[in-house]
Design a protein that fits this description.
This protein is α+β, with helices and mostly antiparallel strands. The chain is built from 16 helices and eight strands. Bound molecules: adenosine-3',5'-cyclic-monophosphate.
Length: about 400
């Protein structure tokens, strides 16, 4: 009895953990998204006027159902919290307490709250406070977006540059607001009479929103407005550029680490020195394929070659299929001969491939000839084998 309880708890923890790739976890994520969608729709629908009583009751039941699922999720997460590596070494009670007071725990609890509020009769789904649950439930969507973590890292990495842009933004904002206030205060005391009023106009103009509720009327005010509008576009473009570059760099870094992880499984790279290896790593891309996927198709042009770091593929040749496993490569012939693919290659099980694009292959051929010689040797053997000349290959 005592032995089965922890394993069930570990399974529950793994199923609810993001971003676990297991079947159960993926299914739970789909259910979670569906339930969340129903909840948000129910609350949005109940905020409209003039609904018949039966529909209001139905929507309340839907919200209750959604909140019930989230309450069950909270209970399971609380129960399985001691399985988290973060709380290793703590007693079960302490681990649960630590999880309950964490941000994640608080969001989970808030998501379950409508159940109790509605059950206690203090709120119905069409109550004016109900939309607050839209915000709380939407927060749990963050778990489905791994890019949130990437965004946090990008902001942290680029904080110095971003701070400079924010400082420029604030400088333009304050100078523009003060200038407009001086120019417009006599003519429009209601909208530009105080600095905070003028600041509101400056923010609306600088962010290129332009509600049109406050408009400068003097020539000086309009000139300031023109400068602010153009500055707004520049500042936003700068911000976008910094974030986009940061995202691309972060993705490149992660891909680099993923390749390092996989490249150790390909023996032909093992003999290379660290410097050479790091040059190759920056040129490879990791791609995961499920079984029965055509990776290259006979007679199509070849733009890349592949190294198998995990799994297996089948090369479909006229004389029969040849299996290639971990450490092998394929797709080299089209690059070496600059001819269409000589065979179709299909994955036979979940497979991880390292992809090397043609332009990078030719660059490596120039810089690391020993590696390409080994590829050429194998290609010669394969060509001869395909022609039925296997015995003569070794001497050529
Ligand atoms: P390519 O012609 O670019 O695309 C199909 C690939 O199948 C080919 O490169 C080789 O990598 C691989 N291939 C062709 N013949 C053989 C063989 N006899 N044994 C193993 N792989 C082969």
């Amino acid at each position: 009895m005592a032995a089965t309880a922890p394993s069930r708890r570990a399974r529950a923890y793994a199923a609810l953990r993001y971003p676990d790739t297991s079947h159960v976890s993926r299914r739970w994520r789909s259910i979670h998204l569906l339930v969340l969608g129903i909840g948000l729709l129910a609350i949005a629908a109940s905020s409209t006027d003039g609904l018949p009583t039966w529909l209001t009751q139905l929507l309340t039941i839907a919200v209750l159902g959604v909140a019930f699922v989230f309450t069950a999720e909270y209970a399971v997460r609380l129960w399985s919290a001691p399985e988290s590596p973060r709380y290793a070494g703590l007693s079960d009670g302490m681990a649960r307490l630590r999880w309950a007071v964490s941000t994640n725990g608080a969001i989970c609890l808030l998501a379950a709250l409508p159940l109790f509020v509605i059950a206690l009769g203090t709120m119905r789904a069409d109550n004016q406070h109900a939309p607050i649950f839209c915000i709380i439930w939407v927060l749990s969507l963050a778990r489905h977006a791994p890019a949130m973590g990437t965004l946090a890292r990008v902001i942290s990495n680029e904080r110095a540059t971003l701070t400079s842009v924010v400082v420029i933004f604030l400088m333009v904002l304050i100078i523009a607001a003060t200038g407009a206030h001086i120019m417009e205060r006599d003519g429009q005391p209601k909208t530009f009479g105080t600095l905070p009023d003028a600041l509101w106009w400056a923010v609306v103009t600088l962010t290129t929103t332009g509600y049109g509720d406050t408009v400068p009327l003097t020539a000086g005010g309009r000139m300031i407005g023109s400068v602010v509008m153009v500055s707004g576009i520049l500042v936003l473009a700068l911000m976008t550029g910094i974030l986009a570059t940061g995202f691309a760099e972060e993705e490149r870094r992660r891909e680099y680490l993923r390749v390092w992880d996989q490249i150790t499984k390909v023996p032909m790279f093992a003999s290379l020195g660290t410097v050479t290896l790091s040059e190759i790593v920056s040129k490879l891309r990791v791609r995961n394929y499920p079984p029965r996927i055509i990776v290259v198709r006979r007679d199509e042009p070849g733009e890349s070659m592949f190294f198998i770091s995990e799994g297996e593929v089948e090369v479909r040749l006229p004389r029969g299929a040849v299996a290639l496993g971990q450490g092998a490569f394929f797709g080299e012939m089209a690059l070496l001969d600059r001819l269409p693919r000589s065979a179709t290659v299909v994955t036979t099980r979940p497979t991880t491939l390292l992809v090397l694009y043609a332009s990078d292959f030719y660059e490596i051929a120039a810089n690391i000839p020993s590696l390409v010689e080994a590829v050429e040797r194998e290609a010669r053997r394969r060509r001869a084998e395909n022609r039925g000349e296997a015995a003569t290959v070794e001497t050529t």
